[in-house]
Amino acid sequence: MRGYPNYATSGDYLKEVGKILPGLAAAGDALVAALANAFDGGRTVFMAGNGGSAAAASHFAQDLAKGTLADMRAKHRFRVIPLTDNVGYITALANDEGYEHVFAHQMRAFAAPGDVLVAISGSGNSPNVLRAVDLAKSIGMSVIGVTGFDGGKLRSACDVEVHVPIDDMGMCEALHGVLFHLAMAMLRDHVTRANAA
User: Fold this and answer.
1) Residue 174 — very low, low, confident or very high, per pLDDT cuts 50/70/90?
2) pLDDT per residue over 85-96, tens digit each?
3) Domain-by-domain residue ranges, the chain?
4) What is the pLDDT of residue 3?
5) Is the pLDDT of residue 1 over 80?
């Protein structure tokens, strides 16, 4: 299957991961900085993606909402909406309007200027993610583009680039997960300091 290369041994796979990891520090720093800025401004962070990236969007949303809290009594929290989790609405939109509209139409009800869209697409070419990006930019939101392969159309359309340069969808998605957990771990201190102030 295209985008899923074979590896002879576990060691070969992990060796490839090891080659890419050191180059992701700048992407991790950019992701953390953009999300810290959204938190400080009281902005809502929206998440979108398909397939494995939909699961990553859901997972990262709960990591930001809950995983960044050192104390569940905290007053200041991330405002996060995963656009991947409202199954009834998603299927209604897909059925009646077309699958390419499932994220943008949800955002129309909730998004405001200054909010942030985390757009996750390994290929960078998912039509529904790109439509959400178009809507986000049209209303003055910022876009964090999380991509793999060559980044596709999303890479040039985003404000903050989180790019994993690998032509392997599974490894790309796994490394997106590493970056998302990195962000959660670093942002926990940021949220804790904000609640102590």
Assistant:
1) very high
2) 999 999 999 999
3) 19-196
4) 85
5) no
Whole-number Å distance between alpha carbons of 161 and 178? 16
Under DSSP, is residue 9 helix (H, G, I), strand (E, B) or coil?
coil
| In 45-110, alpha helices (H) | 52-62, 87-96, 104-110
What angle in degrees, to the nearest 10, is found between the helix axes of 169-196 and 10-20? 50
Does the pTM of the predicted model rise above 0.90?
yes
Quick check: 98 and 20 in contact, CB under 8 A?
no
Q: Can you tell me whether residue 23 is helix, strand or coil?
A: helix
* Residue 66 to residue 166: CA distance in whole angstroms: 30
β partners of residue 44? 79
Return phi, psi of residue 83, to 5°.
-75, 0
**CATH for 19-196?**
3.40.50.10490
